[in-house]
Amino acid sequence: MTVDDTTSGAGAQPPSDGSSGASASSSGQGASGSAGASGSASGFAAGASGSASEAGGTSGSASGTGGTSGSASGTGETSGSASGTSGSGTSGPAQHTPHHEVDHTAEPSDDPLAIRLEQLILGAERRYTAFQAARTAGVSMELAARFWRAMGFADIGQAKALTEADVLALRRLAGLVEAGLLSEPMAVQVARSTGQTTARLADWQIDSFLEGLTEPPEPGMTRTEVTYPLVELLLPELEEFLVYVWRRQLAAATGRVVQAADDEEMVDRRLAVAFADLVGFTRLTRRLEEEELGELVESFETTCADLVAAHSGRLIKTLGDEVLYAADDAGTAAEIALRLIETMTDDESMPALRVGIAFGTVTTRMGDVFGTTVNLASRLTSIAPKDALLVDGAFAEELIRTGDAPASEAEAAEEAAKAEKEGRVVPTYRFALQPMWQRPVRGLGVVEPWLLTRRPT
Length: 457
Known about the structure:
Helix content is 52%, strand content 13%. By secondary structure, the protein is an alpha+beta fold. A hairpin with a 3-residue loop joins strand 8 (439-441) and strand 9 (445-447).
């Protein structure tokens, strides 16, 4: 974050446009100050959740952090008041920030509607530069810059682009570190995971959701004339819904963790990991129009997401023509894969699908999965035939162990005959396994894939 660290106090260094701005900061009137902030940087406050009173209580209870930041805030107010005296009066020459100390990467946003929408969404006016916000929050500039960049926001230089919510967000994160609840690297990771997830959500809502709803209802009306009242109506509803879904997902994730067999399994878990890939997608991109291609990808991702969720799997991520999902047990992963293939086969508008699954230890980080098991599942997908499912040896063994598949069809027939002769119930299996030719797989050595199919009842 490009700032002038030679300034002192929350209101010391005036903006580069020559206006004092310090007295506005110290007076608490929330003057917007310089509008020359990039949209993404000023949007940082969207990541700060909760009300001012709630956040203040949080930071105040965290090992004295609230007291520390309160002291810093008080210092900032004092210096801001002192330096702002000339600004609030009639005297005092305009002070300009040297050209080499200004961040020229921040693009100004002077559109009145854009500023009004920003204030509506953030719930506050621009008030602080980055340095002033860090100082007021009692956080070092270095740590504040790490938090902001982790959340995905651009450096803003000395533009007044931050609000009270940004200060409270810094206090919260710093308070968790001071209280020992999170290490500093973990706090940065929390900021990064939250930023990446919500950035994608916000982009989707603007590109797909709001774009369709802001079509002018009457001739002569512009889209911008419709946007403000629509955002005003939708904002509280979408916020409540976001919190609801997040709590539900958090409860589900917590339940999976506490059910782990041991502490090591909480981090490095044994999972079934699967990739499902559309065949010939590259050729389709040359043949279809952009709108048709977008509809195909959306239909594919929606179908996969619905099937994975309905059968207790977890969709890890979508990659356009490919999805990655995981399941706690091999039988669930196999059922999802076969249903995906069957659904796509019945849809004449969809290309063929191929799926690869591997079972083993997986490292989970920020909602994603890593490790040899994931790499193997990806390689199996690349060599799978059209409308077919390939699995690795560990996955096959797991299905046999749980009774979802026989070790061989000959053994299954022999066992069925014996059970019938003895008057016992004949064992039934959901899946059939057929060993394929061993083959070298790049980076993983020689593997023996198994073709998995649904066993006739």
